[in-house]
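Subgroup meeting minutes
Present: P.N., E.W., G.H.
Scribe: E.W.

1. P.N. recapped why we're keeping a running log of single-chain structure predictions: easier to compare across weeks, and new members can see raw inputs and outputs side by side.
2. G.H. added today's entry (96 aa).
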Amino acid sequence: MGLNSVELKDLEFSIADRLYIQIESWNLYLGDAGLAEALAIECNAKLEEGATVAARYGLESVHVELAGGSTRLPLARLIPASQLFDLEELLTPYCR
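Output recorded in log:
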């Protein structure tokens, strides 16, 4: 079934402000990196399977281009482990 457009936008804003990519001691929030919308959309595809599945699927599905696109990594490889739990927490209210 999935989220309606308002719920999806709310999820995107929540992700944008709370989750980040961590490189050394530098944190780049997903909203600033332009990745929050893609992650919200990917997570939405699996919400019916629960927050844990949706979070892991979304983080593996969104690929981040590095070095002008010469390298691509799944978002899951660029965020701290604690961010997975934060994403699951954000997704839980949307799971039906």
